[in-house]
Amino acid sequence: MIVNRITANPPTGGRISFARLDGTETLELVELHRRAGRLASSLAELGIGPGDRIGILAANSPQWVLLDLAALWLGAETAGFEPGKFEPDQQLISRYGLRLLFTDRPADAADALPLAEVDRLVEKADSAPEPVVWEPDRVTTVKFTSGSTGEPKGLGATAASIDSSLRAVQDMFHHRAGDDLFVFLPLSLLQQRYWIYSALRHGHDVTVSTYEAAFATLRRARPTVVMGVPAFFETARRHIEARAARSGKPVGEQAAQLFGDRIRYLWTGSAPAAPATLRFFNEAGLPIFEGYGLNETCIVAKNHPGASREGSVGRVVPGKEVLLDADGVISVRSDHPVNDHYAYAAPGDSEKVFRPGGIVRTGDLGLIDEDGYLYILGRADDVIVLENGKKIVVRPIEERLTSGPAITEAVLFCPRQTELVAVVRPAHYPPDEAAIADALADANAALGKDERIARAIVAREPFTVENGLLTSQFKPRRPQIRAAYAADLANPQEGIHAR
């Protein structure tokens, strides 16, 4: 398996760079491998071994990567905690059974160590222990679902599920020497660490940044591949369009200036991408490929060069099978499941999602066309049932509202069971209410009678992770948005009314 190869065999090429606002630090991958082995030796002296769990609560950094690789070396589990969502206290250590917690935040807990201690532990050792051999069903890391409500659920990811996903991605995209994959989402998300494992296995470069530094460092880093959630690419689109309008230069030229001149493709997933944004980048000469997956399944389907269809999330990858029930709700069967239960969740949560035989009920609605392309229609829980019994799938309607330049985000509700009302984020503040009214009219012109939107409530502020209206993967938290705008939704006089 790949997780065994990357610790047992030093890489034959490639570099890893850590980009910050104040500069970039670059290491040869063989040096990263050497430091990880020495860190593993020092951690072993502290009593860390197979089955122990190390917590990491810190921003993306070289130390984060070294700790993750050293844990793989020792057969220890990692638990990556997203800064801002967790606090580095004794309660965290006790709840998740951590032997040690490394953090770049102030912490008084007895088993919490400053992240800077990693550097000392690397220098303390002069050799590496023999790497542990991971069995396929052993858990390498605990990851946490972003969730739209409640506490994050903990999920142990098996070594075989990581291996299966890495192989599927490599078969589609053929990452190789000369590629540089740009990663800026938190390393607490296991999928972001996949690209570091890929670099160690296949000898390509990888650049690690933070979300805050991403745009500032893109052009300097000159990556060939950029991994990002739809919200990132939607923000990039607005930057590019604004630059093109100011300069009078072509959009494609401005896109290349922002992303650098070596882009091979852009990768997006984790949340639905606006069709207009996908078309924008494709037409600008930067191919963008949308895919589909969950924490509970990892990658399920992906568009890729030679097999891409607009509106779909691609064909189902080897090792996965998509099952549709009578209502179109998607379940996914995996040859190598991520797991068959949550490690940390409320009673009954695992039973709602995990089924025998490596099957996960996703709660998403979908269909598969005659050529095997998967389309995601929305969430089963987000289907609105009108007073007349008509079922409304909200995602296609929301996508129509955001297809033009006036509205960047839309979340549809039905406050009185008789009319649809959208809470919308305008492209600019103060909002252009006339442009929003036009977008509402354009959407309604293409919709059926029961699907038409009666009015739009303009959000008083953007939906963000910080104000609790987006998950950490930038999906809307519908219950929180409904609560924030409850009075406006309930008052039929509020908002911009359809003409």
Automatic annotation (TrEMBL):
AMP-dependent synthetase/ligase domain: residues covered: 22-324
Keywords per UniProt: ATP-binding, Nucleotide-binding
Chain coiled-coil ranges: none
Pfam families named in the record: AMP-binding (PF00501), AMP-binding_C_3 (PF23562)
ATP-binding found in the keyword field: yes
Entry keyword Transmembrane helix: no
Cited PANTHER family: AMP-BINDING DOMAIN-CONTAINING PROTEIN-RELATED, LONG-CHAIN-FATTY-ACID--COA LIGASE
Annotated protein name in UniProt: AMP-binding protein
Organism whose genome encodes this protein: Kitasatospora cathayae
